[in-house]
Amino acid sequence: MKSESLFRATMMAALFLLASRASAQNNTVSLKIDLVAWGNDIPGLSIKAGSKNDEVTALAFQYSKDIAYSGSNVLEIYQRAGVQTVPADSKEAVIKDAIPPELLALRKEKPDLVALAQLPADSKRVTILLAPAQDHTFRAVVIDDDPSKLPPGKLRIHNYSPVPVALRCNGAPPKELKGRESMVTAPNNHQVIYELAYQDQGQWKMQENNILRVGDDEQAQMIILKSDSGYFTGTNGTRSGFLQAVVLRRQKEAPAP
What we know:
Largest sheet: 8 strands, mixed
Low-confidence stretches: 1-24, 88-93
CATH topology of the largest domain: Immunoglobulin-like
Number of domains: 2
Number of helices: 2
Number of strands: 16
CATH architecture of the largest domain: Sandwich
Radius of gyration: 21 Å
Order of helices and strands: HEEEEEHEEEEEEEEEEE
Oligomer: single chain
Strand content: 35-45%
Structural class: mainly beta
């Protein structure tokens, strides 16, 4: 009897876990999305299979046309077949991670599906960075840009590099950011004067110091990363340093009439 009761309890727990997972994957969201390329421009993207009229191009490290989306919190991103994303002679690094099994399974029936993105609940806007991965797919890095998390007039700094970084902003004590960590800082007279260092084999090395202007009505975020993209190569062939940094800016939306 005890073994039968234990079996029933185990089965009920397993069914509850499966139901919870299915429910989480079927939650609906309604928000605006910006697709941004982590490297070369990515043309021919859409959030509906075969929807050529709704295609957008994810530009290299800058915003373009946003997308209004309502649907599952697991976003499917498609790319029209035959679209060339990265030139054959490009040195753009491809992420070595294996294709997620969920994406691999769906691509058997949807060959134009190139990325899956888990969208946050209760957010009005997100940025999705698309990094080139294996077999013409992309890894989606989702950044929650809801105004409650990134108020206009402030700067958010993300570390998406493979090493820890440290920042000193407007003379405040330095703050260390490990991979995927972020911080929000308030400008002084619309300016953020920062010093950026990175850790290399246990030693801290200076990357750069600079000044960023942040307007009262813009969402601004600096993304620190490591990229081989030609986007960071000057006309004379030189690069900015061991790490790279880009700033995404979005104007505050006008209130609905």
